[in-house]
Amino acid sequence: MLHQSTNDLWDLEKPIITERSHLNHLKPIGVGTTMVESLTGYIARLADSHNVFPGILISREIAPFLKEIFLKDSSSRGLRAFFHRATALNGTGVMALDFVNSLENLTSQSNLCFLTLLYWAEIIPPRGLFNSHKTWCSACYEHWYLSGEIVYEPLIWNLSNFKVCPYHHQRLQNICPHCQDVIPLLTWRTRPGYCSNCGGWLGRNDSKTSTDEFSQQGFLSKEELEWQTWVAEVLGELIAAIPYLKTPIPKENIAKSLSIAIDMVSEGNLAAFASLLGLPKNTVWMWKNGKAVPQIDLMLRICYFLRVTLLNFLTSEDIASCIKITIKPPYQRSRKPRISPKSFDSEQVQNALLAVVRSDEIPPPAMREVALQLGYDRRTILQHFPNLCHAISAKRLSYCKSLRLENIELSRKEVQQIAIRLCNEGIYPTENLVSQSMTKPGYLRYKEVRATLQQAQTNFSG
């Protein structure tokens, strides 16, 4: 029986070692889905993976690889000016392209362009495209954290027209619940899921308000809810489709789809079509003839009217089959039959208003609620009984003011107790720590409550 010698087992061929990336080979989240990560969020996560702040990563590692000079200097002043324009990193321009190319070289990732809207550069104007500050869904943050998933910043949250989370049916937030301030999109210390101003966690879902509750509270009408839900769906579809489109979409597609829509809806009458949408006919003419392209909010408005998705409007070869609305001449908005006005029962209304003024009901109803119960327009009631209406409004205002003062005092005492407890434990009572234990952390915005906290911080002896 033959036995292999030790030398026979040696493999003397040089092993193939793949080229290593300069920065971590961090995989972007959600490519090809509605919730794809934003480039600014990716930069923050990449910095976190290296245990440095985004400001350090950008100024020391990324800036030297950029073709354009976006950072004139690495001082705090120069970086502040750069961070002020950070929304452009997720957009359609040169800044986004330069950062994508640089980061792809540094990380050896080849799909970072899908974290921006570069693919839609020809057909989506940048003006009004993004929010100027960070917006987020606190329920998404909380869910990812509790389920052990990666906390990140979806690209769609940055779009100015995206306002309601379709998964948790709540409005996106734009004010930190701890420091009551807006949060810049990208800063020196940005960390996904946390406020870069005070460091507070943004996933606390204090408000469990659904879209139905928004409607009941008067924040959104039924029509507005329908609109926001539709916008969320079509914008998500547009973003998710980016990796699967073979070539960039030319702006001529807008003119083509618009021409077909005008032919279908108003038999080619451009002025009538513009009138139906409430738009200047000259503007629509510019779009139809390819002289200009509409901003994304106007494109959404057109698509919503036609009952067609934005993706189909921009890409479909057979847009006529996608359009679900047809309006026949004389191309006017449909008018509901005129309803005879309800007769105004002056005596009944007066007695009802007097009853509200004399009532001890807590909380006292607002004039809007009273008018709704009586079934009359508030302005009509005001014309007949201005003094009673003002009395009801004043009563409500006085109650709200006293309630606010009461809550301020309660919050002030609560802050005092929390601060004393922290001080006794040898912990400095920061605003973030105190707000986490407060019943109503939002009341830290009032000067009386903040003064109590500042006094406690002054008295802290360590």
Q: If helices are DSSP runs of H or I spanning 4 or more residues, what is the number of helices?
A: 19
User: What are the secondary-structure elements, in order, as H or E?
Assistant: HHHHHEEHHHHHHHHHHHHHH
Helix content: 40-55%
User: What structural class do the secondary elements suggest?
Assistant: mainly alpha
- What strand order characterises the main sheet? 1-2
> What is the mean pLDDT?
84
Distance between the termini: 80 Å
Give the overall shape, derived from the CA principal axes.
flat
Weakly predicted, low-confidence segments? 206-218, 331-336
Strands, total number? 2
Biggest sheet character: 2 strands, antiparallel
Radius of gyration: 29 Å
Strand content: under 5%
